[in-house]
From TrEMBL, chain A:
Signal peptide boundaries: 1-21
Family statement drawn from the similarity comment of this UniProt entry: Belongs to the leucine-binding protein family.
Keyword Zinc among record annotations: no
Native source species: Paracoccus litorisediminis
Keyword Signal: yes
InterPro entries: Leu-bd, Peripla_BP_I
Designated name of the protein: ABC transporter substrate-binding protein
UniProt-listed Pfam families: Peripla_BP_6
Alphabetical UniProt keywords: Signal
UniProtKB/TrEMBL annotation, chain B:
Main location as per UniProt: membrane
Any GO BP annotation: amino acid transport
GO MF, one example: transmembrane transporter activity
CDD domains assigned: TM_PBP1_LivH_like
Presence of keyword Transmembrane helix: yes
One of the Pfam families matching this protein, by short name: BPD_transp_2
Highest taxon above the source species: Bacteria
Membrane protein topology class: Multi-pass membrane protein
Organism: Paracoccus litorisediminis
Protein name, as recorded: Branched-chain amino acid ABC transporter permease
From TrEMBL, chain C:
Localization of this protein: Cell membrane
Keywords recorded for this protein, A-Z: Cell membrane, Membrane, Transmembrane, Transmembrane helix
Keyword Cell inner membrane: no
Domain of life of the organism encoding this protein: Bacteria
Membrane recorded as keyword: yes
Organism of origin: Paracoccus litorisediminis
Single annotated GO MF: branched-chain amino acid transmembrane transporter activity
Protein name: Branched-chain amino acid ABC transporter permease
Record field: transmembrane: 27-44, 50-69, 76-95, 101-123, 130-148, 236-259, 271-296, 316-335
One Gene Ontology cellular component: plasma membrane
Topology with respect to the bilayer: Multi-pass membrane protein
Classification lineage: Bacteria, Pseudomonadati, Pseudomonadota, Alphaproteobacteria, Rhodobacterales
A Pfam family this chain is assigned to: BPD_transp_2
Length: 426, 326, 358
């Protein structure tokens, strides 16, 4: 009898969450593990924006948004468990903030017909919407990032990179390897030499890589890092007195947690970004009034306005806009995932619209379509000011070199389509 | 010139090795005295460093749990504590941890097989990892106890004048070397010249013989775990200064394992020499061979190097000879 | 009362030596198999398959494999993650190179390839013993993961180094790829788990298993009574790696569908499987299943209890989960250092005597 009761109780606890009536946007976050410090801030921004919509506007189109959170610890198996646990509750869209989990989920969401939104991470060729029907990675992907960074370097060296040396310090994983092919093509086109320096995660020991940099004296160093690797790299760069203004990280290597431990030596470090930072946006007045002061901020609101918080919020903004668009198209506020996909594909976020929601110039203009799931790919550069302890934006949004990127995306997505027998849709 | 580059890598490798040795020392101490392979050593370093930062910044322990349970908002006490008091207090906490480990875990597992004890320390590692995060939060913490970092100018200028090439030596590494040397000297002095130290060595040699001459095994264990806790604190301070105090700090244990293998699990000088060989070997390999095979070789090369040594000396360089009888 | 062997007469040595000598046990075992094969596939949904049962079965296979090496032959290994990666990448290369061959053949071949690699890395065990060997197997772990990460041939030159399992079918049912149904995934893993457990059980009670145990108990003594340590140790490595390789192949092709060497087969995997066999019980097939169940179910259970039922913040729940699992491991070791298998045996002993204590 006891055993039976225990089995029943076990089953009840193990069973997935019951279906919910509202719009469900699960937040597959990670607040623990090696990348927990980064994941926490992103998840907070993501949650807070939906809380704001719920508190201020009563949701979107009258429908409340729920963001049930599930801890993945940046671990793919836990990510799968989280996905399975939440998808039954009518989940509309997933945003796992992990390239590994994204690769895992791409086949799954395609079979289950749920949207996967991966802003600035995940599989780059998902930009090709005719192959990746359910995956969106606007506003920018890694190859866009690599190209924008190289464009910025071109700018810095007077339009010519011939004979220059660029080193790429990267996280030795699927994520870190993404930009290599693009950078190789770009190095051929612009005539610079590229040195690749992989760093095994977690990346606390990078002395030999930075001694190589010290010996080779590259003109610029690019970085694709995440977690403790970022701090260590910036610290080592400072140690060998590599000029910080020639050191550019991808957007995931440009948050406060990466530069603060290094202190004053990090002054002048640059990184890409596709969203604004800081609390100087009108939306924060509402945020303060409806979310922070009533004590509804995610985890106490201690990271409001940080780079990763802003990026989490930006992801939430795009999802909210897509939901709105989907509601318009479907004519009903209670949309399903298929309608949300249509909403994403018809999504256009103009500068005017961003101003309207209180985030002027917060992100690039986005225009999506059936075959373009990646937007314009525009990104900009931010620079760290160690005295004021804040990031400042130093360029406008820059377009990537689509001439180089498009063939690469076409090739990669075609390979995927062939492997999985997908006929392009549009 | 190539020779100068190589020697620069070599010197830096040796210094990185010292950082590994700091972690390895804690393993050796506990293994020697109680035969326990303490997997939790890395997490102890993380826990000690977190506690130190928490105390220095005046954070409220368990703030998150309190906030979640009672719906209040506590975060900081509003004071800061100077590094020296913080270190002393953290050392005390590590002693408390040692007592707790002895009372709650080791006491009940006397006489079990080594693998069971090893497993228990893995449980302990998980527990401490969770405890540290619940107590102090999982954010990246900045640890500043006043250790300098960055290139040493005087060495660079001196070598530049002398050899025509300025050597890169990190000041933190120099400090780590000095501290490690002092630590080893203190440990050797303690174990050779004090009563407790001799008792510790007696226990290491033969538990039963030590017991029969009236040495309290439990006291020795508490003492050894306390010392290992202190060593973990030192390692935590060095590594935490280098790259911030955060989860990944606990993974430095993986860097110490090849050092242990190579030096032998039971030898304090072995931990130092092993660290130097591993640090030097992996850096030189990464520097010269790495670019040819695609880089990021350090992790596995350390183990393969240690493995090669073991094939010729199965007990490590300084380990006690294994004598087997039927 | 009911559970006892009184009246259960054996008339041949064969009967006496069977795995479940007590009639009730035997019935229980057949009933369990019946439920697992005939009932569960019809009621299983994709949450239960993907979050609970499929990982449980796969880890049980890996745990049996490691238990053969560590529990029966006494060679502690921390290279399990690396060997699982060998299985995964072998099956990926085979699947994409020979799409016409049935997937079951590929999975078995992947196991065989892993067995060869395992034997290679088992060679140092002839000289190195105990914890030194455990740390030495980490060399295999780190080297193999690095190799799969670095050599583009292994991941068919894809841009990011991820491998994706294409769809393969058995009797018209997809067993790999995104369209795989929950019952298909579950049944595939179940078939492998049951067959491999049966093989392992019979290997370990035969001559090979007795040789392994002799080596475990004292290798010099074993050598003196005529057990060849070379063949015994290497065969343990080979068989163990075969199991682990199949687990890796299933993990990648059936369960995850996409994988990356350093993330999916990192050092944590090695530790996880080792925990399973120690908690479950060294040298026990049942213990491998029990340990796998414990470590797969417990985190899911705690997470659902703390987050879904009690509504705690996810990070706090995750940290507490670590503390609870860590604390429970210590607790179990103190209460019963020989694992869940011993606890089970003691319970059965008690049941046989119940309700008369003597």
């Amino acid at each position: 009898m006891k055993l039976k009761l225990a089995t029943v109780a076990l089953g009840a606890i193990l069973a997935a969450a019951p279906a919910m009536a509202d719009l469900v946007v699960p937040n597959l976050s990670y607040r623990t593990g090696p990348y927990g410090a980064n994941g926490t801030q992103y998840a907070d921004g993501f949650n807070d924006y939906f809380t704001l919509l719920n508190e201020r506007d009563g949701g979107i189109g009258g429908e409340k948004i729920q963001t049930p959170e599930c801890e993945t610890a940046y671990n793919t198996e836990k990510g799968v468990e989280c996905y399975e646990a939440t998808k039954g509750s009518g989940a509309l869209v997933y945003n796992p903030l992990s390239t590994g989990i994204t690769y895992q989920l791409i086949p799954k969401v395609s079979a289950d017909k749920i949207v996967l939104y991966t802003p600035g991470y995940g599989r780059t060729s998902a930009k090709n919407g005719s192959v990746f029907e359910w995956v969106f990675n606007a506003p920018a992907n890694y190859w866009d990032g690599a190209s924008v960074a190289v464009k910025y370097l071109l700018d810095q060296s007077g339009g010519d990179l011939k004979g220059k040396k660029v080193a790429l310090v990267y996280h030795n994983s699927a994520y870190g390897k993404e930009p290599i092919r693009t950078l190789q093509d770009l190095s051929k086109k612009h005539g610079f030499t590229l040195t690749e320096l992989p760093i095994d995660p977690p990346g606390q020991e990078q002395k030999s890589q930075w001694l190589q940099i010290r010996r080779d004296k590259p003109d610029y160093v690019l970085m694709w890092g995440w977690g403790v690797m970022n701090q260590t790299a910036i610290q080592e760069a400072a140690n060998i007195r590599f000029p910080m203004e020639n050191f550019i990280g991808v957007w995931w290597s440009g948050s406060e947690v990466d530069v603060l431990p290094v202190g004053a030596a990090a002054h002048g470090y640059k990184s890409l970004t596709f969203n604004g930072v800081g609390t100087d946006y009108p939306v924060y007045a509402d945020m303060k009034k409806f979310v922070i002061e009533p004590g509804k901020a995610s985890q106490g609101g201690q990271f409001v306005g940080s780079a990763l918080y802003s990026r989490g919020m930006y992801a939430a903004v795009v999802i909210a806009e897509a939901i709105k668009k989907a509601q318009e198209l479907a004519g009903t506020p209670a949309i399903n995932a298929t309608q949300l996909r249509d909403g994403f594909e018809a999504l256009g976020i103009t500068p005017a619209r961003l101003t309207e929601i209180g985030l002027p110039d917060f992100g690039p203009e986005i225009k999506m379509s059936c075959d373009n799931h990646g937007g314009s790919g525009m990104a900009r550069i931010q620079q760290w000011d160690a005295n004021a302890k804040k990031w400042s934006l130093i360029t406008e949004f820059t377009e990537p070199d689509q001439e180089v990127l498009n063939p690469l995306i076409a090739a990669d997505s075609e390979a995927f389509a062939k492997e999985f027998n997908i006929t392009p849709r549009c | 010139m190539e020779f100068l580059y190589a020697s620069e890598v070599l010197v830096n490798g040796l210094m990185a090795g010292v950082m590994y040795s700091l972690v390895a020392l804690g393993f050796v101490l506990i293994y020697k005295a109680s035969g326990v392979f303490n997997y939790a050593q890395g997490v102890m370093a993380l826990f000690a460093a977190m506690t130190l930062v928490g105390i220095m910044e005046g954070r409220v322990p368990f703030a998150h749990l309190i906030n979640a349970a009672f719906g209040v908002h506590v975060d900081r006490f509003g004071w800061t504590v100077p590094a020296i008091f913080g270190i002393a207090l953290t050392a005390l906490i590590m002693v408390g941890l040692a007592i707790a480990v002895e009372k709650l875990v080791l006491k009940h597992l006397v006489g079990q097989e080594p693998i069971i004890l090893f497993m228990a320390t893995i449980g302990l590692a998980w527990f401490l990892e969770g405890l540290g995060d619940v107590m102090w939060g999982a954010d990246v913490k900045v640890l500043d106890v006043g250790l300098p970092q960055g290139i040493s100018d005087s060495i660079e200028t001196a070598t530049n004048n002398w050899l025509g090439y300025g050597f890169f030596i990190d000041r933190l590494d120099i400090w780590a070397t000095v501290i490690a040397a002092a630590l080893v000297a203190a440990l050797v002095g303690f174990s050779q010249y004090t009563k407790q130290g001799r008792a510790m060595r007696a226990v290491a040699d033969d538990h039963q013989a030590a017991l029969s001459v009236g040495i309290s095994l439990r006291f020795i264990w508490i003492m050894v775990w306390s010392i290992a806790g202190f060593v973990a604190l030192v390692a935590g301070i060095m590594w935490g200064t280098k790259s911030g105090v955060q989860f990944s700090l606990s993974l430095i244990a993986l860097k110490a394992l090849p050092v242990l293998m190579l030096g032998g699990f039971t030898s304090i000088p072995g931990a130092i020499v092993g660290g130097l060989i591993i640090g030097m070997g992996e850096k030189l390999f990464e520097y010269f061979i790495g670019p040819m095979v695609g880089g990021a070789t350090e992790n596995w090369f350390a183990y393969v190097l240690a493995l090669l040594f073991l094939v010729f000396r199965p007990q490590g360089l300084f380990g006690e000879r294994i004598i087997e009888r039927v | 009362m009911i559970y006892r062997e009184a009246g259960d007469f054996k008339t041949s040595y064969r009967d006496d030596g069977q795995t479940f000598p007590i009639r009730l046990d035997r019935w229980g075992y057949y009933a369990l198999l019946g439920v697992a094969f005939l009932v569960v596939p019809f009621v299983i949904d994709s949450y239960w398959a993907n979050a609970v049962l499929v990982p449980f079965l796969i880890y049980a296979i890996a745990a049996i494999g490691l238990n053969i090496l560590t529990g029966y032959a006494g060679q502690v290994s921390l290279g399990t993650g690396g060997f699982m990666a060998v299985g995964a990448y072998s099956v990926y290369k085979l699947m994409t190179a020979f799409p016409g061959v049935p997937i079951f053949v590929h999975i078995l071949l992947a196991g065989a390839i892993t067995a060869v690699v395992g034997m290679l890395f088992g060679l140092p065990s002839l000289r190195i013993k105990g914890f030194y060997l455990a740390v030495a197997t980490l060399a295999a772990q780190f080297f193999l993961v690095w190799l799969f990460n670095k050599v583009p041939w292994f991941y068919n030159y894809s841009a990011s180094g991820q491998i994706n399992a294409p769809e393969r079918t058995v009797f018209g049912w997809a067993v790999t790829g995104p369209a795989t149904s929950a019952p298909a995934k579950y049944l595939t893993c179940l078939v492998f788990a049951v067959v491999l457990a049966w093989i392992a059980r019979n290997l370990t009670r035969g001559m090979v298993g007795r040789k392994w145990m002799a080596i475990r108990d004292m290798d010099i003594a074993a050598e003196i009574i005529g057990v060849n340590p070379l063949t015994a140790k290497l065969s343990a490595f080979a068989v163990s790696s075969f199991f682990v390789g199949i687990a890796g192949a299933l993990l990648f092709s059936v369960y995850l569908g996409a994988a990356e060497a350093s993330e999916a087969f990192g050092i944590n995997k090695s530790f996880l499987v080792l925990f399973m066999i120690i908690i479950g019980g060294l040298g026990s097939i049942f213990g491998s299943f029990a340990g796998a169940a414990f470590l797969v179910l417990l985190p899911v259970l705690l997470k659902n209890l703390l987050v879904v039922r009690l509504g705690w913040p996810t990070d706090l729940a995750a940290h507490l989960e670590l503390m609870i699992v860590g604390g429970l491991i210590i607790f179990f070791l103190i209460v019963e250092p020989h694992g869940l298998a011993r606890l089970w045996r003691l319970t059965k002993e008690k049941l046989r005597l119940w309700p008369f204590p003597h």
